[in-house]
Amino acid sequence: MKTKLLLIVVVGMFNCLQAVETAVPDKEIVYKQVGDVVLKLHVFDPPGHSGTKKTSAVVFFFGGGWLGGSPSQFYRQSHDLASRGMVAICAEYRVKRVHGTSPRECVKDGKSAMRWVRSHAEELGIDPDRIVAGGGSAGGHIAAAVALLDGFNDKDDDLSVSPRPNALVLFNPVFNNGPDGGYGYDRVRDYWQEFSPMHNIDRDAPPTLVLQGTRDKYIPVSTVEQYKELMEQSGARCDLVLYEGDGHGFFNEFRYVETMTEVERFLASLGCLQ
């Protein structure tokens, strides 16, 4: 029985890795340059897509604690959502280990990416009023931050273009950056109140889906439950799905099908998927 279970686990891991390897962006587009640092959007188009169409879109931000990570983390999700008719984008942003930056720059780049996508909606063939932001862990923080935070705007951005997404899809996201056990407080203590999504929820917060493992050692269930409560108190929609026994980063492992089923159901309820 143990041998059979091990075989199932190994086959599942192989299939997951194979799916990621076969998911390749249709194009990469430079959206921002800071000095000699060039940041790109990795774009997955629906089959037969052209600039004459106005589909919904999703912009994913990878996780990695604002320290590292890769846009390929969400290649599989992007490939699958593109096959369902959405333009799916995986955004690069600056991280500490590569660029020596702070969490501030992560959010600034996230806002720049959202503004670029919205201002280039016509050439991308997307509806500027149906742009979703998504992400996992610290990438979930960036997605929530571009939706809720007023500050952290790049000086070269066109501030007349809103970075706010029309919906959020978040996998084990960082919501709380406060002194009460919030993630990364030691790195953002000087500006945590302006930086923490949980402390900046307002009535304009977009509809949000949160997918969370119950054994996440970085993001307690109590945090996402409190976030959902605060969202609903403000009059905003927040769907929370808990996965019993799963830890951090579970969504790209053995819960891929289950989590993507919830994502597709949520997006369909908003008219972003057929």
Automatic annotation (TrEMBL):
Listed Gene3D superfamilies: alpha/beta hydrolase
Signal peptide stretch: 1-19
Domain of life: Bacteria
Domain Peptidase S9 prolyl oligopeptidase catalytic: 189-268
Ranges for domain BD-FAE-like: 51-155
GO biological process: proteolysis
GO MF annotation terms: serine-type peptidase activity; triacylglycerol lipase activity
Keywords: Hydrolase, Signal
Family: Belongs to the 'GDXG' lipolytic enzyme family.
PANTHER family: AB HYDROLASE SUPERFAMILY PROTEIN C4A8.06C, ACETYL-HYDROLASE LIPR-RELATED
Name of the protein in question: Alpha/beta hydrolase fold domain-containing protein
